[in-house]
Amino acid sequence: MVGLFRRSQESGEKTEEALERTRRTWFGKVAGLFERPRIDQELWEELEELLIGADTGVATARKILDRLQQRVEEERLHRPEAVRDVLKEELVRMLEVDEAGGHLWGKDASTASLPRPAIILVVGVNGTGKTTSIAKLAYAYRADGESVIIAAADTFRAAAIEQLRALGDMVDSHVVAHRPGADPGAVVYDALTAAESRCADVVIVDTAGRLHTKVNLMEELRKIQRVIQRRHPGAPHEVVLILDATIGQNGLAQAQAFAEAVDVTAVCLAKLDGTSKGGVVFAVCDQLGIPVRFVGTGERPEDLSPFSPRRFVDALFV
């Protein structure tokens, strides 16, 4: 993750702590399956049931099971602990998605090629933790010495502007805002102008909490994207969808709707510490092909961690 979260050990510990409820319930039971003396049909059935219960979804759970059974047969595995290790490998493989077209956080990103300003569009429905996730992202950039401007383009919810201003002050980031009900595109335009005049490193654009059933609001989101692209061709450089980890498979439906409206390049899984069903991350990566880049691990500005597939899966099986 270029330029962000140099405190990788601390971030890893936060991820492990956030996954405590998921590990203690569903995935703790998954790990327990492989303490049996042999692999049999009952184990496969229970494994599928547990994966679905952890919110991986039926289709994704089936895919995981099919891959695992195929490898067990091909590699002639008989020891349960060996099968468990292969399961972990397949889970990591499912999470290693890196083809969504983002320019800041992908495997090919480098500090030498970062655009200035880097423009990040943040989308998601109300109540997912979108505004606080924006503040956390700004905090991470500020901690790494980058200057940040936040565009308060959620003009439909009056409290959103004040909330963002307060959070902006907290994380030492300038917030560009208009009055409630103003044109979101105009807010974004002014934020980009301010970024240019201040030589800002990063612009983070908040958007209204658009319900995926409201076509007109989705069109407004596309309009914001066009405003950005007229000023900076090739931007936004990342489009981050904030998903609430506590709502499970409903989050997948939201992700599908937003992916159809704009080119979502990354997912931030908020409130991971508040759920016992963190398996939805596998469904998002499998069904949508969009990488999870961040996870919310608490309520403080510093409680945002970069997402590591290997670290995530290891934390589930500790």
TL;DR of this structure?
The chain has 318 residues and is an alpha/beta fold. The chain has helices at 8-18, 20-24, 26-33, 41-53, 58-74, 80-95, 130-143, 158-170, 184-198, 215-231, 249-261, 280-288, 309-316, and strands at 118-123, 148-153, 174-176, 202-207, 238-244, 266-270, 292-296, 304-306.
Descriptive report:
There is one protein chain. With 318 residues, this protein is α/β, with parallel strands linked by helices. It folds into 2 domains: 8-95, SRP54, nucleotide-binding domain (Four Helix Bundle (Hemerythrin (Met), subunit A)); 111-307, Rossmann fold, CATH 3.40.50. Helices cover 50% and strands 13% of the residues. It contains 13 helices and 8 strands. It has helices at residues 8-18, 20-24, 26-33, 41-53, 58-74, 80-95, 130-143, 158-170, 184-198, 215-231, 249-261, 280-288, 309-316; strands at residues 118-123, 148-153, 174-176, 202-207, 238-244, 266-270, 292-296, 304-306. The chain has an 8-stranded mixed sheet, with helices on both faces. Strand 7 and strand 8 form a beta hairpin. Helix 4 (41-53) packs antiparallel against helix 5, helix 5 (58-74) packs across helix 6 and helix 9 runs parallel beside helix 10. The mean pLDDT is 87.
